[in-house]
């Protein structure tokens, strides 16, 4: 098979270290993440090695699940469960690229709106703009936040 993902290797090495250091949250979170990566590798018709970008996609999805679960637990009054989910999300965040701030997202959206010529199209241009943005923001920003900014800029246009 092709070369292994360096990020996946780092996850495995950190899992071993977490187990040796008896870091329960970190080791259980990394186990779940590595399972999700393995599931992604065997999903579809043919097993494949994931690239670092693919692994970042899996990590982003897992992080989002943890954040959403934390919110759900919090609103249900299950504070301990919410804290557990947040702790797991923090572990996952440590493996993701630095997250973009609102100003950076706004700048990337403006750039994408200009480059796709979607400024005059209003909301019909949303797909075009999101398509241009995806490769630039993958793993670095929440899709909902990006979509909200695209809506804001296209609506204002």
Summarize the structure.
This is Transamidase GatB domain protein. The protein is 73% helix and 0% strand.
How would you characterize this protein structure?
This protein folds into 2 domains: 88 residues, Uncharacterised protein YqeY/AIM41, N-terminal domain (Hypothetical Protein Yqey, Chain: A, domain1); 55 residues, Arc Repressor Mutant, subunit A, CATH 1.10.10. With 157 residues, the chain is mostly helical. The termini are far apart. It contains 7 helices and no strands. Helix 5 packs across helix 7. This is Transamidase GatB domain protein. It comes from uncultured Nocardioidaceae bacterium. Pfam families: YqeY. GO terms for molecular function: carbon-nitrogen ligase activity, with glutamine as amido-N-donor.
Low-pLDDT segments: none
Percent of residues in helices comes to: over 70%
* Beta-strand content estimate: under 5%
SSE ordering: HHHHHHH
The count of strands amounts to: 0
In CATH terms, what is the fold-level topology of the largest domain? Answer: Hypothetical Protein Yqey, Chain: A, domain1
Organism: uncultured Nocardioidaceae bacterium
Pfam family, one: YqeY
GO molecular function, one term: carbon-nitrogen ligase activity, with glutamine as amido-N-donor
Protein name: Transamidase GatB domain protein
